[in-house]
Write a structure and sequence with these properties.
By secondary structure, the chain is an alpha+beta fold. Helix content is 29%, strand content 16%. It is elongated.
Length: 293
């Protein structure tokens, strides 16, 4: 076999072990019939097997019938060709992923809440069972103190938070309960969060960050939206459908009492009534620290 055969898309394989041939095996033909196997399998057949060629059943000799080791120049050429092919493949993948820079993917287990007062802008507080921990197990909470989410001058600055649940249904329940409640002089707004693709993934590179929050694999097409589609509200329509599907499922199943957890429905309550539980009853101190009514 000529070394130029390595220029194809597929490297040759040993027909016995199905491993790619090493560079030193490229010109290795142990039998006069021309049936090529790797040196590892050849040696194993001779020492542990019957010592016969699998193709023609001739006995192998101590020395291969045809073996011409690659020269230094030939090995250098093969390695250079392989590098070029690998680079071309990476470039092609990178070109195919360029459009992802303009795409955001809705994360069904990620709650994005805006309008948190400084008192509430603490991951450990939001994880408590009295707050977002009420709806299910939380994987991570990230606080954003950016002033772009600030309220009025009277209210003062507000923070936002990303709350990642282990289950998507828990995130939906949290949104239904928290969205539009009035706390510490601010109205909270909650929705599913979106995530963009990691720049390293788009370049087909390994991300060096162990805790990178961006996407490293292709997201669900139905949950993926361009910036233009998001400006048109397509992502909110997608989220609305998720809420409607969950509520429809709850309506068809019998209520399961779980008063201690606060995540189930009791009696004739509807999912949409949960905000009253979070805002507190009239004249009572609510669990977020403010007073309702």
């Amino acid at each position: 076999m000529s070394v130029l055969n390595l220029s194809g898309d597929e490297a040759p394989e040993c027909p016995l072990c199905m491993e790619f041939l090493e560079l030193d095996d490229i010109n290795f033909y142990p039998c006069t019939c021309g049936y090529q196997i790797c040196r590892f399998c050849w040696n194993k057949l001779r020492t542990e097997g019957n010592g016969l060629c699998p193709a023609c059943r001739q006995g192998y000799t101590e020395n291969p019938a045809d073996f011409k080791p690659l020269t230094t120049e030939e090995m250098a050429k093969i390695k250079a060709e392989k590098r070029q092919k690998d680079q071309a493949k990476k470039q092609k993948i990178s070109e195919n992923r360029k459009h992802l820079a303009n795409v955001r993917v809705v994360q069904k287990n990620l709650v994005f809440v805006v309008g948190l007062s400084p008192r509430l802008a603490d991951p450990e507080i939001l994880k408590k069972p009295d707050y977002f921990g009420k709806f299910g197990k939380i994987h991570k909470v990230v606080i954003n103190h950016s002033t772009q989410y600030a309220g009025s001058q009277i209210q003062g600055p507000s923070a936002s938070a990303y709350v990642t649940y282990l289950k998507s249904e828990d995130a939906l329940r949290a949104i239904q309960a928290v969205n539009n409640i009035f706390i510490d002089g601010r109205t909270l707004k909650a929705s599913l969060g979106t995530t963009k693709y990691c720049s390293h993934f788009m370049k087909n590179q390994t991300c060096p960050k162990n805790d990178c929050m961006y996407l490293h694999e292709l997201g669900d097409d139905l949950a993926s939206f361009t910036k233009e589609q998001m400006q048109q509200g397509k992502h909110t329509e997608y989220e609305k459908n998720l809420h409607e599907e969950m509520l429809a499922g709850l309506a068809q199943s019998p209520p399961s009492p779980s008063p201690d957890m606060g995540c189930g429905l009791e009696g004739g309550e509807r999912e949409g009534d949960w905000s009253s539980q979070w805002a507190g009853r009239q004249g009572e101190q609510d669990q977020w620290g403010g007073r309702a009514g």
